[in-house]
Specification:
The protein is mostly helical and 246 residues long. The protein folds into 2 domains: 2-104 and 160-175 and 214-240, Rhomboid-like fold; 107-156. It has 11 helices and 4 strands. It has helices spanning 7-21, 28-31, 45-48, 56-77, 79-105, 107-118, 122-132, 145-157, 165-178, 195-212, 221-238; strands at residues 33-34, 160-161, 183-185, 192-194. Strands 1-2 form a two-stranded antiparallel ribbon. Helix 4 packs across helix 5 (79-105) and helix 5 (79-105) crosses helix 11. 34% of the residues are buried. The model has no long low-confidence stretch (mean pLDDT 87).
Amino acid sequence: MFRDLTPNVRLLILINVGMFLAKSFLPDEYLSLHYFGAKDFYPFQLVTYMFVHGSFFHLLGNMFGLYMFGSLLERIWGAQRFLFFYFFCGIGAGLLYVGIQHFVDFADIRRATELVLSNPSSFNLMDYAQHYAVIGSPQGVALNIEWVHANYDEYINRSILGGASGSIFGILMAFGYLFPNSEMFLFPLPIPIKAKYFVSFYGLYELYQGIQQYEGDNVAHFAHIGGMIFAVILLKVWGTKRNNFY
């Protein structure tokens, strides 16, 4: 089964599995993608984060998707074009993710930090601490400008992204785009569903989950959406004609 994989799909799986097995020797937080305003952000993380998986099942799900759909696309496009597509979708997913962080997730704390730094009165400092404190507790720390800076840095530095999901969702989108009428099975339903409906449903589900932001949900839904969006952009740029496929 592994011998049937195309060269780049096999290589990507080996690298991902190898990095997961070497987790104890690798600086995962250094390789994961941080918010671009965080002190631990580095541009190379837009690539390295794709090879950092937090759990075995996270890795398994992504590698299964790569195994199921990646080789077919590599045979169609060739090795170089497939690899470019993979990283284009992964980097695009990371960019959309940090963009959502900037304009949505961290917008409130960024404005609140600017406000309290412009007027660091005792009342403003205490109100800020009650809403955004992640260092110590409002009663147990000295609330001052230095604490605000340190707290803000810690707040935004805690959010990191890891995994190949953006690239995998891009591959899934490409499969649905090129083979819209191919039938798939959505476990555990025993009823076949066309790829175009499966991909559309999955995309809408990810969008819904990303907007809802349920407490305790640590899945990067907008990274998944980003992979799908950038997949469509690249397919449009390439001018791929779906009529050439089933």
